[in-house]
Amino acid sequence: MQCEYDNAPHRRFNPLTGEWVLVSPHRTQRPWDGQLEAADTSQHPAYDKGCYLCPTNTRAGGKKNPGYTDTFVFTNDYAALLPQPQTSSASDDDLFRWEPETGICRVICYSPRHDLSIARMNQVQVLTIIETWVEQYIELGSKSEINHVQIFENRGLVMGCSNPHPHGQIWANQTIPTIPASEGVHQQRYFQKHGSCLLCTYLEKELRLQERILMQNSSFAALVPFWAVWPFETMILPLTHQASIGSMSKTEKADLADIMIKLGICYDNLFLTSFPYSMGIHQQPTDGEEHPGWHYHFHYLPPLLRSQSVKKHMVGYELLAMAQRDLTAETAAAQLKALPKTHYLDSGGRP
After folding, report:
1. 20-29 pLDDT, tens digit each
2. Per-residue pLDDT averaged across 143-171, rounded?
3. R_g of the chain, CA atoms, integer Å
4. More confident residue, 311 or 22
5. Which among 167, 282, 295, 297 is annotated as catalytic?
6. What is the pLDDT of residues 229-286, one digit of tens each?
């Protein structure tokens, strides 16, 4: 559907965070003479004796991995958060305010296979990852000192991933981090004002329009959000109102595995590369309070802009003023929807 803002500069509002993004679709024609990222076209072996995440290998911190056969979870050897406070002091000075922060950081190896990614796994393998996420969310969230459980994955060298072995992380905080806290505030405000869930209402409208919907099954939909900042940013949302992944049924877990694999294939096929991204699950805090407005969801934030070597850089105006994008969410969705459903490596393609 052609809209009057398709080729004109405009702002789009993100109701989850209360922030705006500047959209400048007329700039997509500008030439690119900027930095080209090195494309990750390497082919990895199923087992790498030099990898500190492969089964039976010794990790950088000196501990030896077991001979695991599906997922493997361990406490991060270089954790950003520590379970015990390292200081008992704090400061409430208006200009130099600080306080101790505690938490637990874990690593989840998705598979013993060094050469796999979610896009290259089968449904049973991805289902095992999802079940591990659920177990970890429930276990960590039940601890009185943990009030937020952030599950995420950094994929690809360009996203700062230090090891290609398929893995993700969990940082479980004493406090609720800034972005999930902001999403929680805005979802609750919407719920109090309208008596309904923000994301349920948003998803209902997106499903009716079908402009930005990429795929759906009986339990989930994947879409390019109207307010997307990254070029090919997407979200996965459950079709029914659920506050956390802890309430998923067996069928829903299988459906989530299905849509994650399909979205991963879609990304890889876009530029015929192992597509980099940061992915994370936002869900209700584990502080024991009621959060009726919370609707859990997945964010995929990928940096590639025009090819496997051209990255969107957050600089200048975006660092100093507000988020900005050239490619509209509708154009990005159309490109992603038009891609083949079979992974390019399974159809004879080459990166």
Report:
1. 999 998 776 6
2. 92
3. 21
4. 22
5. 167
6. 999 999 999 999 999 999 999 999 999 999 999 999 999 999 999 999 999 999 999 9
Give me the CATH code for the 43-86+99-340 domain, please.
3.30.428.10
β-strands 103-109, 72-75 pairing: antiparallel
- Is 167 annotated in the active site? yes
Note whether 184 and 294 are within 8 A (CB). yes
pTM: 0.94
Taking 50 as the threshold, does the pLDDT of residue 33 lie above it? no
Q: If you search the block for the tokens 């080209």, which residue do you land on? A: 36
